[in-house]
Amino acid sequence: MEITFLGTNGWFDTHTGATSSVFLNTKDCYIVLDAGSGFYKVPSLLKEDKPIFLFLSHLHLDHICALQMLPLLKNKNLTIIVVGKEQKENLAKFMQLPFMPTAKMLNIEVKEVEEIKNKLPFKVEYYELAHAVKTFGYKIFSEDKVVAYGLDSGLCENILNLAKDSDLFICECSYLPNQDPDFNHLNPKAAALIAKEAKTKLLALIHFKADVYDTFEKRDLALLEAGKYFEKTFAPYDGDTITI
Ligand SMILES: [Zn+2]
Ligand SMILES: [Zn+2]
What we know:
By secondary structure, this protein is of the alpha/beta class. It has one domain (2-236): Metallo-beta-lactamase, Chain A (4-Layer Sandwich). 23% of the residues lie in helices and 27% in strands. It has helices at residues 42-45, 61-64, 84-94, 113-116, 157-163, 188-198, 216-229, and strands spanning 2-7, 9-10, 21-25, 30-33, 52-55, 78-82, 109-112, 123-128, 136-142, 145-150, 168-172, 203-206, 208-209, 233-234, 241-243. The strands form three sheets. Strands 7-6-5-4-3-1-15 form a seven-stranded mixed sheet. The chain has a six-stranded mixed sheet with strand order 8-9-10-11-12-14, covered by helices on one side. A two-stranded parallel sheet has the order 2-13. Helix 5 (157-163) crosses helix 6 (188-198) and helix 6 (188-198) runs parallel beside helix 7 (216-229). The longest helix is centred in the C-terminal third of the chain and has 14 residues, at 216-229. It binds zinc ion (2 copies). Residues 58, 60, 131, 152 line the site of one zinc ion.
């Protein structure tokens, strides 16, 4: 499975990157995690005629702002997946005129994960995380690999359950090493300790909060800090691709 990090910033775009979106190229389908501004790169990555499943963690704008480019994906067999009625209803408030065309106008389906999970060509689990609004982490089981996607989240039991025994844990790293994790977000040490306890194989740090991570050097320091607690950590830049 090929994984491309389309957006690695948190909150807003700067010269360090676009906001959160991760692209998984699997044998049977494309899976996209969040539609932050990095999601604009998706059309250029669609080389084959495969269904696209877009999972939204929550509806903070840095995770959904690029939905407004969905007219480019009209009739591309795209399904947007959220957790629960509340997220689905709130998303419909955003995906409507005058802000953007509705899902129906674009021939795009919006499904609650419970409605669709048994019909997907891979297994998915979801975990409610600690954040200011309802937010869910997704665990994707595909091609004998497990990818856990945990952002945005503060410290909680479920982020550990999400990451448990994953091949790749994509975790948020909003705060600087000298900022304590809280009910909303994590710092590099907290992310690394979760990865260690969860026995994940590889940790990717993304969602670097744009106001405090204003240089790539600060990301390097975060990586250095996380590496003290969990060696197999990396911090991808926008556009980086790995194969697991
Ligand atoms: Zn965010
Ligand atoms: Zn958020």
